[in-house]
């Protein structure tokens, strides 16, 4: 008899625990899940613990990804609330191709300048006729690198050159440069190759190689009408585009204390961009 009572009590306890856990899982949470990659994930982990986040009543959980496409899909499907990793051009290309839902642009964060580096020449004008220039074979970075070369008068691109266009859209190459497509992660090694006159490198790759784009590049991107597509943004699922709590993440990011931390940690190479969304429509 006592054994039956004991078993009944155990079963009842299990049932109560199960109901309790189910209730906890169903309770709404005020935590914002921010999906990010590499250095952006590090920034948001820091901001999540900051005094400024507490003052804004923001509870942030950072979920790190290794693949931008997967992160955008997770955001569009609501598995991630907001993501912080991508340029406006990448965001726009995703939305045009997406079959799983659209994303909304919450606002701008920074421009991480791409640079032209060389271990053998000190100025763009010194690059010899027929020189080999290494450029990332990744479509987004290849397009970005070609636009940087064009902005510096080294090549001409076809009208309407897009964020995922490539070498086939080079219409004029007066110095007869040869282009060698490389894995962008090898840029720090390739720049030392005596056969390579210059290398186009993203800021994350150049930093990993001990280079500072503001000091070591022959030329680099600036915030202007030509680099709008390269400005990084915060993105969320389209239905959350007007979520006021998510928009407070921009207030946190652009806080003076937050910016001081980012500038010190990344040596000024993440150029703050605080523009309205209309900036991408040419209104500002």
Automatic annotation (TrEMBL):
It holds the Pfam family Lipoprotein_9. The keyword Nucleus does not apply. It is found in: Membrane. Keywords: Lipoprotein, Membrane, Palmitate, Signal. It is a lipid-anchor. Belongs to the NlpA lipoprotein family. This is ABC transporter substrate-binding protein.
């Amino acid at each position: 008899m006592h054994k039956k009572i004991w078993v009944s009590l155990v079963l009842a306890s299990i049932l109560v625990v199960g109901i309790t856990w189910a209730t906890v899982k169903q309770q709404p949470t005020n935590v914002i899940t921010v999906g990010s990659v590499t250095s952006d994930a590090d920034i948001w982990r820091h901001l999540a613990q900051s005094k400024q986040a507490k003052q804004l009543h923001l509870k942030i959980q950072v979920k790190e990804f290794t693949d931008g496409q997967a992160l955008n899909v997770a955001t569009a499907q609501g598995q991630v609330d907001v993501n912080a990793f991508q340029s406006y051009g990448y965001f726009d290309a995703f939305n045009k191709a997406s079959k799983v839902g659209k994303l909304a642009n919450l606002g701008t964060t920074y421009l991480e300048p791409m640079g032209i580096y060389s271990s053998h020449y000190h100025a763009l004008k010194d690059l010899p006729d027929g020189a080999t220039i290494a450029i990332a074979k990744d479509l987004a970075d290849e397009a970005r690198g070609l636009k940087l070369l064009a902005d510096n008068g080294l090549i001409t691109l076809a009208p309407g050159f897009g964020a995922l266009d490539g070498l086939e859209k080079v219409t004029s190459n007066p110095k007869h440069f040869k282009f060698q497509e490389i894995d962008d992660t090898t840029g720090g090694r390739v720049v030392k190759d005596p056969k390579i006159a210059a290398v186009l490198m993203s800021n994350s790759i150049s930093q990993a190689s001990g280079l500072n784009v503001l000091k070591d590049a022959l030329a680099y991107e600036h915030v202007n009408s030509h680099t709008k597509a390269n400005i990084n943004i915060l993105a969320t699922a389209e239905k959350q585009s007007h979520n006021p709590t998510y928009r407070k993440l921009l207030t946190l990011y652009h806080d003076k204390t937050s910016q001081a931390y980012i500038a010190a940690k990344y040596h000024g190479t993440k150029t703050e961009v605080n523009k309205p969304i209309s900036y991408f429509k040419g209104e500002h």
